[in-house]
């Protein structure tokens, strides 16, 4: 913090110092999240509860603006909307609580009007029909009609973690029908290259499968290496 301003941990708004480049984020739109996940050794996940609630299968990719809030309270989420830049993804860690919705149609429309790439909430949303019609990528842990409070506390642009997936401000957030994934900003270019190679290999294998020429010998070879026994005829 500048000068002698107190560092009010738990209730503070910080600046985001850097973020993944928009053109790099856009390049991930052509790669399935599963291929990116495989290229990260399958060790990172936002959990199976974070599901896409928007319609049309629209992909998500953009720089993270992080929010850590008290469950059921969206005061700092509102502040993050005022700070967000076009192409950002607001990532809200609300503790996974589903008692009160963190966002409804008004905030979703506001985010879309601002040109945000999407919203990820470790918590609940409401006004589901309207959000589906809007089409803005929205991932959340559940749905409830009960609205939020606006009292705080909370923090903006700090590291957050969702089911073990750590998100730093400015990291790349991607999502498709399989779920959400955070790609560390410093490794995004390297991971993109690996994911593109993985996708290319899978497309070639798909061609072989469709032509009836897929090599399945690896299965018996692996079983033999692991000393699997087979019943003799």
Short description:
The protein is an alpha/beta fold.
Report on the architecture of this protein.
By secondary structure, the protein is an alpha/beta fold. Helices cover 30% and strands 24% of the residues. It contains 7 helices and 12 strands. The strands form 2 sheets. Strands 1, 2, 3, 4, 5, 6, 7, 8, 11 and 12 form a 10-stranded mixed β-sheet that branches. β5, α4 and β6 form a beta-alpha-beta unit. α2 crosses α6. The longest helix has 23 residues, at 188-210. It starts with 10 loop residues before the first strand and ends in an 8-residue tail after the last helix.
Which H/E pattern describes the elements? EHHEEHEEHEHEEEEEEHH
- DSSP helix fraction: 25-40%
Q: Major sheet: size, sense and barrel closure?
A: 10 strands, mixed
SS content category: alpha/beta
Cα distance, first to last residue?
Answer: 75 Å
Strand fraction equals 15-25%
Unreliably modeled segments: none
Contiguous helical run count:
7
What gross morphology would you assign? Answer: elongated
Mean pLDDT: 95
How many β-strands, per DSSP?
12
Radius of gyration: 21 Å
Oligomer: single chain
